[in-house]
Amino acid sequence: ADPARPVLERIRAGETVPGFDASPLHAHGDPRARALLGFCASALAKDSSYQRLAEALAAAKSIQGLEPNFPLAFQFVDSKTGIGPHHTLYHVGRSAGWIAHGMEQFQAGENERFEPVYRGALPP
């Protein structure tokens, strides 16, 4: 009934809010999510499901300054269009992130990317 309530309940419980992952790369929010949701704001302004999402987004922003990430924005667009993760839009969004990461590595003087390897104990 209240789209802001689940956000508020998670924050009160000290839990993370899915779709609002804090990223050091996007300290002021994911620009891909901002662009996609900005389009939704104009194209779907009268859509009831977008209005509910907008209320939840506003609650997360006002309560804890949380910004949505690209997977959240894409999932919403997918729910409205059914385009799925095998669609070009998804790959364009991911590619933009990879290009930005490469630019950041270049600017930081990193010339290679190390393969992440888990070195901890394996689960039983």
Mean pLDDT level = 84
* Count of DSSP-assigned helices: 5
Structural class, judged by helices and strands?
mainly alpha
User: Which runs of at least 5 residues are low in confidence (pLDDT < 50)?
Assistant: none
Helix content: 55-70%
Q: What is the succession of H and E elements? A: HHHHH
- End-to-end gap: 42 Å
Q: How is the main sheet built? A: none
**What integer value in Å does the Rg equal?**
17 Å
Tell me the number of strands. Answer: 0
Query: Strand-residue fraction?
Result: under 5%
Outline, from the CA principal axes?
globular
What labels would you give this structure?
124 residues, mainly alpha, 57% helix, 0% strand, globular
Structure description:
The structure is a single chain. The protein is mainly alpha-helical and 124 residues long. Helices cover 57% and strands 0% of the residues. It is globular, with a radius of gyration of 17 Å.
Write the layout of secondary structure elements.
Elements: H1 4-12, H2 31-43, H3 48-64, H4 70-81, H5 88-107
Helix pairs in contact: 1-3, 2-4
Quick synopsis:
This protein is an all-alpha fold and 124 residues long.
